[in-house]
Design brief:
Layout (H helix, E strand, L loop, with lengths): L4 E4 L22 H12 L3 E5 L9 H11 L5 E3 L6 E5 L17
Parallel strand pairs: 1-2, 1-4, 2-3
Length: about 110
């Protein structure tokens, strides 16, 4: 069992995203990523939805309903990193080689 948690972005990572359609709209699931999340959960790893939408309380019920429908459970929703985060999956992030400032793969 993990002692930390994995953050997974919602729009463009876990759910299909093309344009902003409002607070209540969340796109269909991205099957590969939803499969990963379900596997992590089945292995006892804590997974949290890590999204900017968490800064808008009115988004929370829509995200919870989406999680229940497509993942089978309601995941914690946050936009705050802490020392327990062991990984982040996000469509906008660049991986940096630790302590160098260099972008991984470049």
């Amino acid at each position: 069992m993990s002692h930390g948690w994995i953050g997974v972005d919602l729009d463009g990572t876990l759910a299909f995203y093309d344009i902003w359609r409002g607070l209540e709209h969340i796109g269909p699931p991205v099957p590969l990523m939803v499969g990963r999340v379900k596997e992590w959960l089945s292995n006892g790893i804590t997974v949290k939805i890590f999204t900017a939408r968490a800064s808008v309380p009115e988004c929370t019920p829509h995200i919870q309903a989406w999680c229940k429908e497509h993942i089978g459970v309601v995941l914690e929703i946050t936009n705050v990193k802490d020392f327990g985060m062991i990984a982040l999956y996000d469509d906008r992030a660049y991986r940096i080689i630790e302590n160098t400032g260099k972008i991984y793969g470049n």
